[in-house]
Each structure stands twice: as structure tokens, then as C-alpha cells.
Protein: Tetratricopeptide repeat protein
Organism: Echinicola soli
Amino acid sequence: MSDINQGISLYKEGKFEEALGIFNQLLTSSPKQPLLLLHRGRILSRMGKLDAALEDFDLLIQADNYNADFISDRAVVLHLLKRNEEALSELDRALNLDPNNPYRYSSRAFLKDRIGDLEGAITDYDKAIEMDPEDAISYNNKGLVEEKLGYKERSKKSFDKADKLVGYQPKSTDAPEVNPSPKPAAETPEQLKNQPSKAPNELSFSNYWKTVGKVLGDKNTRAEFFSFIQSKLGKKNK
């Protein structure tokens, strides 16, 4: 019988169908095992099977209604289903349960940005930065929101601070950059990766980000990823 480590390995390799088969098999003998439901829910969401993913996250929260991580993951699926009011409410609840975690603020900021509450997103990124002044990702993503609002000087300061924190040194050039690629958000919830393409007028995370990655906890890993996307895609003129 397949084990959970094999399923997780396949999931990380992007072999979602194979990973799903393993977790379906494991769940036949342990139908309410939280770790199994969590991974299957994430796999299903990555495959675009959002209603099925939501069912797994509903089961998780029924078993543990005060788990902020389960609630946050469920909020992402709700957002992909365009149930944004419910998604925001869930992120509020996750933050109330885990108020000392700056990631709760940056997660909510991420959603507020996507649903058009740009000032609210900046407020939440500011709080995340206040709690963790070395969080380059929050500085980077705050700069993106400031750019959308036309706050050019503020966005430049945010981007420069993010660069400094991760040790990124822009290459000098004699010629100005022509039509640079937009600076991507440096952190994306796991379920938002590889979502099925949608029409241009529909909300589509896969269309919005050129490069995505979930980089949590390890500051060195964050720095490596941030430097990588900067070097590959370039930075928008600020």
C-alpha cells in the first residue's frame, strides 16, 4: 500500500493525478485523518476541482474549528470559487485565532489586493511588517499595491527595502530597461498555483503571476526565491 510520503513527493513534483490516487487510497482506511484530508484538499484545488477541495476543508474544520491553518486554506478555495466575502471572513477568523502571526496579516492583505481593497491591503502589509520587520515578501507585495495606487515613491522605497533584506543587488546598465516585465508577487498560497486558464476578463491567478511560489518560514529560502524571480523577470521601473 502506498504511504503518505510517496503521495507528498508526487504532489511536490506536480504529479497531481498520481498523488490524488494515493491519498484517495489512504483515506479509504482512514477517512477522517486530518493530514490526509489536508493534502488531498490542496491537490484537488491545484487540479481545479474546487468543490471537492472545499468538501475536504469543510471536514477538516468540522474536526477542528479553531485551526487557523485549515481556515486559511479554506479561504483560498472560497476565493477561487469567487466567494470573496466568505473568504475574507475566514481570513478574519484565522487572524483572530492567531493574532501574533504576521503571516495572517499578509495573507489577508494578499486577498484584499485581489478583490480591490488596495488601501486595506497596505494597512495589513504594514501590520505584518511591524510584527516582522525583516519580511521581504511583505515589503515586495506592499510595493506592488502602492504601485497600483500610483504611489511611485512609496513603492520604490518598499521594493528597495525588500531588495536590501534579501541582499539583492540590481545589475548596473548604461541603457534603460525597455518594457520590463512586471515585478511578481513573491508569495502565493499553494492552491493558487497552476490553476486552469480562464478567459481574459475572468479572475485568474495563473494569468496574473508569471512566477509563483509559497515560501514560508525560512528566511534564506525566501531570499533565494526572491532573488531568482528578480533576476529572471527583471524589476519594473520605479
